Amino acid sequence: MYKETLSFLTALKKNNNKEWFDKNRSKYEATRAEFLVMVQNLINEMQKFDKNLKGMEAKQCVFRINKDVRFSKDKSPYKTTYSAFIAPGGRKINLPGYYFHIEPGNQTIIGGGLYQPDPEQLKKIRSEIAYEGKKLKKILEQKDFKKIYPKIEGEKLVKIPKGFDEENEFSELLKHKNFFVMHTISDKEVLDGKLPKLLIDGFKKLKPFNDFIHHAIA
Length: 218
Known about the structure:
By secondary structure, the chain is of the alpha+beta class. The chain has helices at residues 2-14, 18-23, 25-46, 58-61, 119-141, 143-148, 171-174, 187-191, 195-217; strands spanning 82-86, 97-102, 108-114, 179-185. It is globular and about 60 Å long. The termini are far apart.
């Protein structure tokens, strides 16, 4: 399965235009259908440890391959990944969830959390950290978690945000503007048949991080 997917996406990277895509639409439809099945199987398995995903369907979580190029300098029409964001409400919801995409060139990604929280969400997360930062720190420093997700990704403020004590022991965590983590997977790992298990294991380890953010913004 994944060999055909990586092959199609590799070719798409080299031929990112509508004419080529239309000629190879049957390959796209076949590999995308397999990806949808894979995501549904993941969701079914993930419901065992995250009850909030009950009733979710793959089609709610999988992103379209067409790019929105209106505000982009790169006008190539297609994404060169198959991607999904698994969360209550699906890919469009601005809540903590589980993300992954398949991309050739050793660029397959597993991760999650909350990317680009809105100002109110960010304020609530920081307030939770200011008073309950030990809980988040314990999650981030847990050995199995840190092995996969070594750090919180994204931009940080240079100074502690306004309204928070500069002497707060969790000042570095308060500076984060995003609260998501990620791990890169090699093509070899994608092709060895263990990708679903790898994703499930990674998402299980991610759940306490998502739970902390869910609680903060509730």
